[in-house]
Amino acid sequence: MGTAPALAKEKPSVSKWTRFRSADAVHRGTRGGALDGELPDGGNREALVLAGVPAGVFHVSVYALAGLMAGFAALLLTGRMNSGHPTAAMGMEFDAIAAVIVGGTERQRGNGWLPGTVLGVLAVGVLRNGLNVMALPSSLQVASIGLLLIAALLIDSIRRIKP
Predict the structure, then answer these.
(1) pTM as predicted
(2) How far apart are the first and last CA of the chain?
(3) pLDDT tens digits for 17-26?
């Protein structure tokens, strides 16, 4: 019991930090990342074209990167569980959406802040972990995260009201 080396336990955290820093560097350091045209399905395509970024290639690369990150997350989950199961990540998409919204991303335009998203992930993760420790049923856990999501959406709506 407890014979795993300390570094082996920290690999997922190091991996997450590396991916965060890489995404932040791409977001800040490329022509496509600096635009509000990052949404491949409805973003500001004209801004991409005017900036000289080939919009079609950019959109395909965004989807390819998303697929690569999903595959990498699946490998990490498989490693944590020591097995693969087709329903292992069922329901995690709700936590991901909740974390992004709680992190401050606008629900209509999608403008967000990467460190805010990390804080949202931490908030949802701490809430989920605390509810697991309290041994609440999974339905109440989902409802609690839903209440957190509703509160974040209400705060976003109130914040956008112009006086």
Answers:
(1) 0.67
(2) 60
(3) 777 777 777 6
